[in-house]
Design goal:
This protein is α+β, with helices and mostly antiparallel strands. It has helices at residues 30-43, 55-65, 132-138, 141-148, 157-167, 217-230, 288-292, and strands at 7-10, 17-20, 45-48, 86-89, 112-119, 127-131, 151-154, 174-175, 178-179, 186-189, 191-193, 200-202, 209-212, 237-240, 247-251, 255-259, 269-275. It has seven helices and 17 strands. A hairpin with a 6-residue loop joins strand 1 (7-10) and strand 2 (17-20).
């Protein structure tokens, strides 16, 4: 059982920390697990280098962080013994060079993800994560006030509907207690209140958000362009260069990520497990005074509303 002191070295001011002093293949003591969970809320992305996980130990570690989901609403898992492991294979459509938050086209997107490198190209194949709390705070007070009142439509059909109906004959996985047989778009608040920290994040992404609800098309596109421009700014992002065995855990409620496609036809395989989340909730409207005042700062010195 791992009981050693775990250290968390921040990678940037707002997002990311490298974790040392823990072997994820071992049984983790409760205080170690509590420290990882707390650090995830603080840093949003945790990097564990040089781990030696197998599919069973990958699942065992992810399970200490929360209840596991199936691999994906549509895509089957690794095998019958590991239905929770989503295989991200560059040779089978497993590339995602666009900012996105995982599975926001479901009513209850995952709380977080645990991703490990299995097979890597000789060069390239990095992953970037960006802080959606910081993205929200880059907006003007007036635009934040508007964003707080908006809802957006998230749609996974472009990426997964053909897979569901052609390769799976319309029978996906059981997600949130229901067999997935269609991918109807869902509506989420544009700004999500984190259920544990209470902080606000932009909860739209270029990968799955198609339009704003009850907003004319031209205005919807213009506003989404503004929101998307706030996502992925380098000063609010972290980039990880993978080595085989690396494991990265991230909070899916306050981040988006981007898989850099700079390795041509070389092979890249990752295994991902997601942790069950809850239905996103938006904020109550703030008063003008609250928007224009100086936001309080968290322990990292980041403004927080």
């Amino acid at each position: 059982m791992t009981t050693t002191v775990t250290s968390f070295e921040p990678l940037t001011v707002t997002i990311g920390a490298q974790v040392s002093g823990v072997d994820l293949a071992e049984t983790l003591a409760p205080d170690v697990v509590a420290g990882i969970r707390s650090a995830l809320l603080d840093h949003k992305v945790l990097v564990f280098r040089g781990q030696r996980l197998t599919p069973p130990s990958h699942r065992a570690f992810a399970a200490v962080l929360g209840e596991l989901t199936p691999a994906h609403p549509v895509v089957p898992g690794l095998d019958a013994d590991h239905p929770e492991i989503y295989v991200v294979d560059s040779g089978d459509g497993g590339k995602a060079p666009v900012w996105h938050t995982d599975v926001t086209f479901s009513r209850r997107p995952p709380l977080g993800s645990v991703l490990r490198a299995v097979s890597l190209p000789p060069t390239g194949g990095d992953t970037c994560w960006t802080d959606l709390e910081a993205a929200y705070l880059t907006l003007s007070p007036q635009l934040r006030r508007l964003a707080d009142e908006l809802e957006a439509v998230h749609d996974g059909r472009k990426d997964f509907e053909e897979y569901l109906h052609v390769r799976l004959s319309g029978e996906g996985n059981v997600w949130d207690g229901e067999r997935v047989r269609s991918l109807e778009p869902v509506v989420h608040p544009v700004v999500r209140v984190h259920p544990e920290t209470g902080r606000r994040s932009l909860f739209v992404n270029p990968g799955f958000t198609t339009h704003l609800l009850d907003v004319p098309e031209a205005e919807s596109r213009a506003l989404l362009d503004l929101f998307f421009a706030a996502i992925g700014r380098p000063e609010h992002s972290v980039r990880h260069r993978w080595s085989v065995g690396d494991v990265v855990v991230w909070d899916n409620r306050s981040t988006a990520h981007y898989a850099v496609d700079d390795y041509g036809d070389q092979h890249r395989v990752m295994h991902r497990i997601t942790i069950r989340g809850d239905q996103p909730v938006g904020p109550p409207p703030l008063t003008r005074t609250e928007y224009t005042g100086t936001p309080p700062r968290d322990h990292l010195g980041v403004p927080s509303l």
